[in-house]
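Question thread 4412

I'm putting together a teaching handout and wanted feedback from people who do this every day. The idea is simple: show students a protein as raw sequence, then show them the structure tokens that encode its fold, then repeat with a second protein so they can compare. Below is the first pair exactly as I plan to print it.
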Amino acid sequence: MAISQENSAVSSPAKGVRDRLMDSAEQLFAERGFDGTSIRDLAAAAGCNIASVNYYFGGKEKLYVEIWRRHLHLLRDTRIASIEKVLSESAGKPVLEDLLRSFAYSFIGPLVDESGGPRLIKLMAREMVNPHLPPSMFGDDVIKPTLSAVQQALAKACPDLPESKVPLVVFSLIGQLLHTIRVKMMQHSMDDEALAMFEPARVIDHIVAFSAAGIRAYAGGEA
């Protein structure tokens, strides 16, 4: 799923420098943190001069934001696409388990994918401890549009669920998925065999079965 590039008018060589800066900066920020990475480090890793950081991004802070925006837009688009796919394949009447499983995999998948997931998890861990992003960025770029899409789909998958309960059900579901990601983050930072049983696919199967049963009971007035 492609992410839109704001500077589409920039020539091909210039795009190469911009992309190299973003890729190198992402690696450095993940390994060293924002404060531990200098503009000189960024330029050296990208094979360009120091002025390029200001020219393309207006400074280290804005470069950091652009790296996150690239990831957040991909996370948002992947999650919403998973919901739309289930709705399309079911003609707007999704099976609850299918919806939950598709959303769960799209939610966790990019963060556990070995090609880039570990680096993104490191970035997340560092941002949680030492935040540098605008406070509203996660909410505006990811949370609000994702919540809107999953709430609408859940209402179709479980029409007996009272509308007033839908946001709390989604809140509970996402809480389980976020905790799964936190466990994955712990696995990257410590060697603990006790955490090995929380393999993502196994956890997702549990979350789907557990949540579907709870949602149906909730909709039937049993909770």
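The second pair follows. I'd like the answer to focus on this one:
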Amino acid sequence: MRLVTFEDPVQRTRIGAVTDDGRFVDLHSACALYLRDVENESAFERLADALVPPNMLALFEGGDTSLEAAHKAFGHALQNDGATGPRGETIFYSPVEIKLKAPIIPRKFFHTAGNFREHHEEATNAGFSHPVMPWIVFFQNIDAIIGHEEPVIYPEHLTQELDYELELAVVLKKGGKHFSPEEAAAHIGGYVIFNDITARDIQRREMKSGVFSFCKGIDTFCPLGPWIVTADEIPNPHNLAMELRVNSESRQRSHSSKMSVKIPEILSHYSPMGYSAGDVISTGTVSGVAAFSGDPKAWYLKPGDVMECEIENIGILRNRVISWEEVYGQKPAALATQESLR
């Protein structure tokens, strides 16, 4: 299934699955219908609330039980195309009726850096101040998460070097600690596209102390989406073509097979910190970022640019860059200029 979080026409937050023809099935209502029609459950609404709640984090916290219930509900809805819920509520929505949101807001977002050696090599060739080594990990700011077609706000008062980084991310359906790579598959619920927006000038200043976080955690710097593809749909996540385009121009093009450290090892390695169901773990970016190109100034993002992140068998995550002034109606306060941060 391709699992989405969306706002319905009355701006309620719902979770759904995408049909082959691009419509969206409200999984909570579909589950209630399935429980009534197939399982003959009299308490179908209460059971639907428990099994397939209208919240993606809660769905993944239900693990295999909730994901299986969602799958049955989706299948039943497809067999009864155009059906309404037990109380007459809408189950099928067209794309123009809903607004996609970030598919999940996790409790924790583990960020892997340096996993594609091609990214380390391009950084070295560009004279970057620090080696990009495997097992760099930090926590992403979950409040910076945005969804498909939501804008990335360019904070011109903070950075003049806004960059993109295409990544494959994993969503967990099971928490745990101290598990082996062989046990990792039991924890994987699905996969999602992540665009790791980075302010490179801030990053260079931060890395003088050997750490960085602010450069990647600013508001809207964490596009995630457009949906989560469940693990059963992607039997081999290390066999996926990856491409990022800016204004239709290919910037990053690679393949998930080029990961230095594979997903089971990544998940096992971080597991001593402890996972919760619904946590997201990124797997590193590929080569082709603006900062390490032959002409960084020409490639850095600017207001009006449209980024398209595509990963095979998942989809396309699209986000436009807009100016601070377009959002807030005024220029940023002078006290927050980049110069004052040096």
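Top answer:
Good format. For the second protein you could add a caption like this: The chain has ten helices and 19 strands. The longest strand covers residues 222-230.
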